[in-house]
Structures are given as C-alpha cells and as structure tokens.
Amino acid sequence: MVDGILDAMIRYNGKDVRRINHAMKVHAFARHLALAEGLSGRALEVLEAAALLHDIGIHEAERKYGSSSGGYQELEGPAVARGLLVESGLAEVERERILFLIGHHHTYSAIDAVDFRVLVEADFLVNAFEDAMSPEAIAAARERVFRTKAGITLLDSMYSQA
Fold first, then answer.
1. Domains identified in the chain, total number
2. What is the pLDDT of residues 71-102, one digit of tens each?
3. Which domain holds residue 19?
4. pTM of the predicted model, to two decimals?
5. Which residues contact 113 (CB under 8 A, 6 or more apart)?
6. Segment 103-158, tens digit of pLDDT
7. CA pair distance 72, 33, nearest whole angstrom
8. How far apart are CA 29 and CA 23, in angstroms?
9. H or E stretch including 143?
10. Domain harbouring 87, CATH code
11. Do 20 and 13 touch, CB atoms closer than 8 A?
C-alpha cells in the first residue's frame, strides 16, 4: 500500500526532485519516530501515507495563490491527495485520517494524537535543515513543538549547539 502511494507521489511531482526528496526524508523520520512510539499495522501505514503526501498541495497552492505557505498547502493538499488515494486499498476512515493530517500538518494547535505529533516532528526535523533554521528557532520549536522522546533525542543530536 505505501509503495503504491510513494509511486503516486513521485508521478504527481514529476521532475520536482526537491519535493520528492523532502517527502522521502519526512517519511523516513516519521517511520522511525512512529516505531519508537509503538505505532504498527494500519496506524503505521496511515502515518506513512500521510508523511509521503503531506506537502502534496504545494503545486496547486503555487498555481492558485503564487505561494507554497503552510496554510495554502493545508487548503489544497487534501483534494490532491484524495485522488492519489483512490486505489490505495485503505478504508474510508483511514483515507479520511490521512486527509486530515495533510490538511492540518502546519496547525500545531490541532495535534490530537501520536500520528499527528510524529508527522509534525518529522517534518520539522527535515525543515530545520532545508530551511537553514537558526539555533534559536530550533530551540524554540523544541519547547513549543516536540513531545516525543525519540523526536527530542533526534532534534538534539542533529541540531544541539551544546
């Protein structure tokens, strides 16, 4: 199931290798954190699918609004993802959870479960590097965003100034 979603994400992004690489990195961190948090089975597959598709709305956001800001990604992502999930074999409730995660992955106040927390932390781990975040911004996010032990450990080992 996840392999099919990976293939669909790559086809959708076409030659946008930067976006494909970002999704792959977020997926890898999300899987690692999820396993550390005890996710398995379908819950893990749902999270992995959401991680692969979390930014799938960027192209539509850029086309419609001239921006890839988080709010526009959340607005456009679920509709794009819905089409990519049609043949996933996932139950409707699982597809809806993926769409919810995609539609809220920049809304930290909406975090309602461990799968959401893991997706946010994995995305931040990648964005901190890709966006060349300052040590101060990373430290602030550590306090504001990170809650999983594995996520905090990774963040500290990758970005700590100590």
1. 1
2. 999 999 999 999 999 888 899 999 999 999 99
3. 2-159
4. 0.95
5. none
6. 999 999 999 999 999 999 999 999 999 999 999 999 999 999 999 999 999 999 99
7. 26
8. 10
9. helix 135-144
10. 1.10.3210.10
11. yes
